[in-house]
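PT: before anyone asks, these are the final sequences, not the draft ones from last week. 277 residues across everything. Please model them as a single complex and drop the result in this thread when it's through.
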Amino acid sequence: MKKKEILIVVLILIICGLYLIYDNFIKKDSTYAKVVDLNTDEELLRFDISEDAVYELDVKYGKFHIEVKDSHYHAFDVDCPNQTCVNMGWMPSLGIYSPITCIPNGIIIVVEENE
Amino acid sequence: MNKTKKISYVAILSALAIVINLFESMFIPPIQFGIRFGLANIISLVTIHLFSYKELIFVNVMRVSIGSLLRGMIFGSQFWISFMGVLFSTLVIMVCHRLKTSLIFMSIMSAIFHSLGQVVVVMMLYSQAMIASIFPILAISSIATGILTGFVAKECLRRVKV
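LR: through. Structure below.
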């Protein structure tokens, strides 16, 4: 490889590395997630994911628990036949906020889009 | 080189690209974040060095279309993701070929632009702009896999005589 080419590759490496460092260690903005009823589009709960907490919701099949810890949240101890929402695990996963959905209970947890 | 020989060479290269593509998607699972080796890229690099732009486009189109046809997923979202990836990497390979860059650099660049193309398509198809944050990880791993495939392609070219 020529010198110029190595320089370009190293530059890409540095830019990506800096971005990753910024993304993982420096960037800290409060992000809100909300629990929405799938049938009525009604907002049931809105929480700051930078604050550790446990929330409890009354849903069709019983109780629905959301735990927030270290800017991550997950559903646990859910009264629901298929447990898909519990198996989705912690969000964000790999930096991506997938919606946690519970079809039997008809609710979805999504992150609010930042303006 | 006469026409018959050229056609058979391009056919062999296309077949190799398709088989490597299928083999990789079946037996080598993505490491993480969807990072994969992109072994079929070796064939693109060999093709551009043995022949020219036209043959490269032919081999890559064959690889994407027949590859996804054999997997039974043609014109699905996965097809478009890999198609755009290959389109981007093909264009970059052509530019690098014109600029007469080294093989390894060409390989790295095509790997990076392959993932860029895929990220762009995912952003458009699923309207998930946040997926773009995964690109730096992909770019860094592309450099590693690009060096690997570039090295393999270099060794291949040393042994292949047209």
